[in-house]
UniProtKB/TrEMBL annotation:
CDD domains: Delta6-FADS-like. Residues 69-333 form the Fatty acid desaturase domain. InterPro entries: FA_desaturase_dom, Fatty_acid_desaturase. Pfam families: FA_desaturase. This is Fatty acid desaturase family protein.
Length: 365
């Protein structure tokens, strides 16, 4: 649908839309002007904590002789990997900390601990997803080319396999991210030679990642290599599942709109802001849960200001929520279980042909 067709938008005048843009710009300016040493100290603390937890978890996995020790170590490793991927890799690659001018904590130099190549992901995510958020045919994150999440996507027989597809996507999410990035790069570059270069980068990253997780680190455990190998596999799967939950709960619940490609033609800044607000959703999370998910429990605020530091999103959310109340706009948030249930209801309901749909809710555009 077009932005002007969204029912929750109809009461706004053009002047209202531009005033919303102005007020959001004020929020951005206030945050940017207040960034400083405390924020820099925050991201450095997170890096040190994540690395220390990673080492401690691996020592526990390799050194403990009990199943309980292995389980605790594996869960700690999964948590450390989640922080590395989300609060660090995802957010640093967004340029949230580029203002520090620290070459080690910069979007152009950070490489995350997963099979996807950071540079390839930055184009597919920072540009295609965030600029064209929820625009059909332009944002590949709509269903990740595997899931049907709106009736505006034509139904195909393959969608009947949605339960299996959905489970495989969740368990192997890092591979989905990696393939997503290389696919976007193939579409972006314009010569076979450039495509070959990007393929080599991707394959090289896969080789390095698999060697580290499944060869080098188990080998360092000597006779206990099986414990380390099993822990690495389990931690990667747990990390993938948690990243999947974070992402889908921010983009697929009821109330998160999708849009027709015509929406981007002559789109004003205010309309772009509205599209981000109407196409995303939040969920409630404790600080420990929030940091492991890159603070994407504040997906609305992240989409409004993708390059502002994640530690400021809770503060920003208070002002964005007040803005939504002021202009009578929905602020889509709920508990994590509720948002997750709503996403799964949509994903599995839309696996069936439209004439069979009977999932007890209005047609999701």
């Amino acid at each position: 649908m077009a932005i002007a067709d969204v029912s929750t938008y109809l009461h706004l005048s053009s002047a209202d839309v531009e005033e919303i843009a102005y007020e959001l710009d004020v929020i951005r300016r206030d945050i940017e002007e207040s960034l400083g040493a405390e924020d820099a100290a925050y991201i450095r603390r997170v890096i040190h904590f994540q690395r220390a937890l990673d080492v401690a978890a691996r020592l526990m996995i390799a050194g403990s002789r009990s199943k309980t020790g292995w389980l605790v170590g594996t869960c700690a490793l999964a948590y450390a990997k989640s922080i590395e991927n989300m609060e660090l890799g995802h957010n640093i690659s967004h340029g949230q900390w580029d203002w520090m001018n620290d070459p080690e904590i910069h979007s152009t130099t950070w490489e995350w601990d997963m099979v996807g190549h950071s540079a390839q992901w930055r184009y597919s995510h920072n540009y295609r997803h965030h600029v064209f958020s929820n625009v059909l045919g332009m944002d590949d994150d709509i269903g990740y080319r595997l899931l049907r999440v709106t009736q505006d996507q034509p139904w195909r027989w393959a969608y009947l396999a949605t339960p299996l597809r959905n489970l495989l996507l969740a368990a192997t999410f890092e591979w989905g991210i990696g393939l997503h990035g290389i696919r976007s790069e193939r579409e972006r570059v314009d010569t076979p030679a450039a495509v070959a270069v990007e393929k080599r980068k991707f394959l090289g990253k896969i080789a390095r990642q698999l060697s580290k997780d499944y060869v080098l680190l188990p080998a360092l455990s000597l006779r206990r290599w099986r414990r380390t190998l099993a822990a690495n596999i389990t931690a990667n799967v747990l990390r993938n599942l948690w990243v999947y939950v974070n992402i889908i709960c921010g983009h697929i619940p009821d109330g998160a709109e999708t849009f027709d490609p015509s929406v981007v033609k002559d789109e004003t800044k205010g309309e772009w802001y509205l599209r981000q607000m109407l196409g995303t959703a939040n969920f409630n999370a404790s600080p420990l849960l929030a940091i492991s998910g890159g603070h994407l429990c504040y997906q609305i605020e992240h989409h409004l200001f993708p390059d502002l530091p994640s530690n400021r999103l809770p503060q920003i959310s208070v002002r964005v929520r007040e803005l939504c109340e002021k202009y009578g706009l929905p602020y889509n948030t709920a508990s994590l279980p509720r948002q997750y249930f709503r996403t799964q209801r949509i994903i599995h309901g839309l696996a069936f042909p439209d004439w069979l749909l009977s999932i007890g809710r209005p047609r999701r555009k």
